[in-house]
Amino acid sequence: MLKLYAIRPIRPIKPCLVASTFRHYSVKVDTSNKADVIKDSQTDTTSKPGAEHGHTLGQYITKKLMVRQRLPTEKGDDSFLTPPAMPHHGYRQDLMEKIHYEHREPTLIRDKLAFGLMRSLRVCFDFFSGYKHPKTKEGLEKLTPATYQMTPEKWLTRFIILESIAGVPGSVASFLRHLQSLRLLKRDKAFIQTLQDEAYNERMHLLTFLEIGKPGPFMKVLLYASQGVFCNLFFFTYMLAPNACHRFVGYLEEEAVYTYTTCLEDIERGLLPDIEHFKVPKIAKDYWHLSEDAKMRDLISYIRADEAKHREVNHTFANLKLDGTDRNPFALQVDSVPESAQPNNRLSTHKAVGWERDELVL
Ligand SMILES: [Fe+2]
Ligand SMILES: [Fe+2]
Hints:
transmembrane helix; AOX; metal-binding; 52% helix; AOX_sf; transmembrane; mainly alpha
């Protein structure tokens, strides 16, 4: 790994401070769900074969960012859960299973810029969140529990950072369109509805993972700062170039589908027995109408399907005239238009790379 900066051990003023600086909690999950035993142990990056023992800046940040699993005594408070404000419409199981990573090739300059920015952020995100996963098919086939580098904590860290960012665009875009509707005294043609639903849906993803993992102060500071930057940048860019913003979100959602697909495949390979035995939180069961004995695999399948719909919606919005000319075909349905020329919120009409404008009756 590229060593950017060597971190020297801090002078040991107090033994407990040193321990908390260079160690983090890793969790052994009792698969019978009777008790979780937490061990204060060295990070997994030093216990895996071939792991480096030096501390680079990247490794230091990864350790500090790492989420730990909540103790049974830290489970969230279910006493004030209200019915979801925007209920989930559900998906057909067979269609959810078919979701996979698909990429829309950028053609316009603005699309290439959006994709390039997304790829750059992805590389940084992978580096600092300690993401280590084979990139080739041969590497994946050779993957064994002994060579597997991704721990449940790393996946939870990844999910929580991803979802806390993904909840911003829908909220900012709907806010701006809401203001535009008030200011210009014009209808919005149903874009606000879908964007608010997307933001709510992303926040439900985040709240679900926060019931399982507990971020530390370092991550909270990072999310505070990154939201401040991203929210403002997205706000001003959306006022100038809304289509490019939706394309950027389309690419962000492609990455989300990729992340959840990889996690699901690893669960199926038996590489993540701990995640498989996490208890699905009540907030998630209520929102996605999951059964009492639902497993994490079921939950992640639903979340991946949500991300796939966001991918489709945002790639489609990026193709539309957003100045009030076009309607949002996902929310403003016209009965006389057939499904072949009008998408909806379900997976039956799913087009991963989005609908072209000339495919739609608007
Ligand atoms: Fe999400
Ligand atoms: Fe999403």
